[in-house]
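Notebook entry, structure prediction.
Reason for the run: the old model in the group folder had no record of what sequence produced it. Starting over properly, with the input documented here first.
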Amino acid sequence: MGTDDTPPIAAGAFAFISKGWREVQHSATADLRLMRARADRELEQLLASAPALAPRPPVAAGAPIAEVEFVRRRIQPKIQELQRQAALGGWPPGPAGASLRIDLSGITAIRNAVVAEGQGNGRWGIARWKGDQAEEEAKEWEVVRMIRSGLKEFERRSLSSDMLAGFRGRSKFVEKFKLSLKSLNKEDRESKEVPPLDLPEILAYLVRQSGPFLDQLGIRRDLCDKLVDMLYSKRNVRPMYDSLSADKSLSENLTDELDLRIARVLECTGYHREEGFWNEPAKYKISDNRRHIAIVTTASLPWMTGTSINPLFRAAYLARSAKQKVTLVVPWLSKPEQELVYPNNITFNSPEEQETYIRNWLQERLGFEANFKISFYPGKFSKERRSIIPAGDTSQFIPSKEADIAILEEPEHLNWYHHGKRWTDKFNHVIGVAHTNYLEYIKREKNGALQAFLVKHINNWVTRAYCHKVLRLSAATQDLPRSVICNVHGVNPKFLSIGEKFAAERKCGQKALSKGAYFLGKMVWAKGYRELIDLLSKHKNDLVDFKLDVYGNGEDSEAVQATARKLDLSINFFKGRDHADDSLHGYKVFVNPSISDVLCTATAEALAMGKFVICADHPSNEFFKSFPNCLTYKTSEEFVVRIKEAMAGEPQPLTPEQRYSLSWEAATERFMEYSELDKVLNDNNAQPGRGGKINKVRKMPLLSKLSGVVDGGLAFAHHCLTGNEILRLATGAIPGTRDYDKQQCMDLNLLPPQVQHPVYGW
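New structure, fully documented this time:
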């Protein structure tokens, strides 16, 4: 069997069986039975498949029939003999060589039969054996190729089985694999509560992460590695994996163990961080033509105030463009605080409920579908300031992948106690919109002059540190750094529709506005109620037949009503309503004597409905003076004249140009122009806020660099001061607003602050 004319099939089978027998003779009887069972199955498959390859044709005779007869007459008996040999109770007794000769005899007989038959009739082209190089190679017979492939497959499977059986318990690779699986299974069975990092582990990781810095100081890397090994070897927690590769050095093992330890602790705490430990987050990169705009405001519906309504419409109209995606970020209040702020006892159990309310309210007033996202950040309501103060870092609720352009509605308010990432560091372009005349409100309080002086400088400080551009709705606000004056607010489209309907009714001769005068606003003294009561009480005799209906809710409701009753004024008080409510459509005159507003939304809505508006000659009303129905006054005597004039006359219908100037489409165009947002959106390669702030700064690079240094210093100082709880409380902050509390974590599904900012996650 070792001669050159031995067929490759027989030679391969002999090599396989010889090698297998040398290994199997030292194995258990069970392994031998497994091999015999597998051999039986393979031989049965050969017997079953051989007739199928050459079925007897029903009509034709000749070669195919002769092939089948050859298989039946010469090959099948030999295979059956092999099967009987394997079916015996054990291998034939005797030495290994005899057994091998007996087993191989069947295979040799098959070989001889195939060769003899092929040489006898010459009807099949059989491939020449390896030793005969003289004859040309021909196409193999189908049955021979099938037998050869079957034997090779049998050899491969049996060899794999024998190798696993023979080397079980002795293979180093398999042993390591089993240990790794065991360690992983053990890890899964262990409690999810992983011991916290101890001090040596924290120091080891700190030294390791500080490698580049230490390298700059001249400390060699090998010394750092030794220090890490020394610190980590003193840890109190046992190693998690004892089966690290033995080929690695001790230093490499400890390094891998430290990585696994840190990862395991972070995983079990639920801590997630988009950026690395030490790297600053990469700024938003423009990967496509769509930009991201985040609009952050200080109030939300159902609180009917300007900072909840106007940013909502701004988000809807900015989202109409295909150039940008928009996210509106609004405060979330816990349920007890919702009861203090929201009218008509409206409360929400979850942010999803409030988002549904906001979208339904907006959908009723828009003629299109507003496609923008709404996100919530935790807030606290301040009774003293009658406003919502953010809790924690508001900027973290905008993902870094969406941190492109930020619009801060009331940037002073948002950043008074902001202790988090700098807006201009996280966003490419930051725009502030100043809504409120804070100085006017503060002057009305005790020690108001001193407080107003401090707040004025704080507002300048935070807006310069955190904004690239500031838009002031009117000159009523304080002059802020990098600011321009422009009305970027519009009115609800529903009010314009109401005005068009009234104009059409007047053309038909109908009297659309049959009621008298009214005032609508949040019922707090600073919203114009003090001025209104003073004017009516001073000229009570001049306005004998004049009656005023007042709609509003607020913290000063009882005090305002009590004062009006005490002075016996002709004022009827009603609960607050939406200005678009049907009960308010029939009024002809809207009276608004407030001088604390920056740009009164209710005044714009009344003008859009085609009503008279009586307001003070004040910078906050500068935008409305161009409308013929806006009647302004400077003195109390002029106020009386304007009241009588409006009650006796009829308002003029608005022209198409005037209606458009009040719309949100026009307001959005003004916003894009004055904030330079149109340039930012159209220039994808620009770095807005860096080199393109103001034309004068572009021409003076040194001035730009100095300005950036000053801004950075102001932001750093503000961050340090707002991190001290004593200083926060001394300046009027709500206790515990540096981070959000447990209830807010539950409402917004947030991780606790100690998990968000662990000691090992610097």
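Summary: The mean pLDDT is 75.
The old model has been moved to the deprecated folder.
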